[in-house]
Design brief:
The protein contains six helices and 13 strands. With about 220 residues, the chain is an alpha/beta fold. The strands form two sheets. The chain has a nine-stranded mixed sheet. The chain has a four-stranded mixed sheet with strand order 6-5-7-10, with helices on one face. Strand 11 and strand 12 (about 165-175) form a beta hairpin.
Length: about 220
């Protein structure tokens, strides 16, 4: 079963519906004891980094998430959830993250005409290398973004990028069993459903999930 982590900083209903559209068994969890038994975890989130980490600490979810990732449980972070996977953020001061992979969250720069922060709307994301979420053969497709900060991570962990103000900005990451997307797949229509279906197929292929026919509806 895929477990969606209810951290109190997101609207889970649309994420649940998206996974249901790709025929994936999913349930919402909010207790520390539920994290360790999950076949796979999804950490959605919206808002500020510091608030997100404080909510995880209040619900005693930080160490269970770290332990699950260390044990090999696949974990997918969405939007703020992706940023929380990193070591730290500079949003409204310095805040420590989950530290599941190296990197920090820094402010987006918009110094060219036509770009503004926050970045809200559709941006074409293209593969940075061959991966689960973004196969190398995949063409750039639009996803829906809402963010003012970006993930500054090692190049080997970047799965996809967008062009923002003339610079490549991380749109997705992969680091072993840890995955993340800066955009909202649940709001990205067919492209978002296709991406979730690829992740679900990865879970099935690696024996984490018994799902047949996980395809976008």
């Amino acid at each position: 079963m895929i477990c969606l982590v209810d951290s109190g900083i997101c609207n889970l209903a649309s994420v649940v519906r998206a996974f249901e559209r790709v025929c994936a068994p999913v349930r919402t969890v909010s207790r520390p004891e539920d994290i360790g038994s999950a076949a796979a975890l999804v950490l959605p989130g919206v808002g500020a980094f510091g608030d997100g980490m404080e909510s995880l600490r209040t619900r005693r979810l930080v160490e269970p998430l770290r332990s699950a990732a260390a044990d090999g449980t696949p974990l997918l972070g969405i939007c703020l959830g992706m940023q929380l996977l990193l070591e730290e953020s500079e949003e409204h001061g310095r805040h420590a993250g989950l530290g599941l992979l190296p990197g920090r969250v820094v402010r987006l720069l918009a110094d060219r005409p036509g770009f503004r922060v926050p970045n809200i709307g559709w941006c074409d994301a293209a593969p940075a290398r061959d991966g689960v979420l973004f196969p190398a053969t995949m063409k750039a497709v639009p996803f829906y973004f809402v963010h003012s900060f970006r993930a500054d991570i090692p190049a080997d962990d970047v799965a996809a990028t967008i062009d923002f103000s003339g610079r490549p900005v991380t749109a997705a990451l992969e680091h072993g069993n840890v995955f993340g997307v800066q955009f909202h797949p649940e709001k990205s229509q067919d492209a978002g459903l296709d991406l979730l279906a690829r992740w679900v197929e990865y879970l099935r292929r690696t024996g984490r999930l018994d799902v047949k026919g996980a395809t976008a509806a």
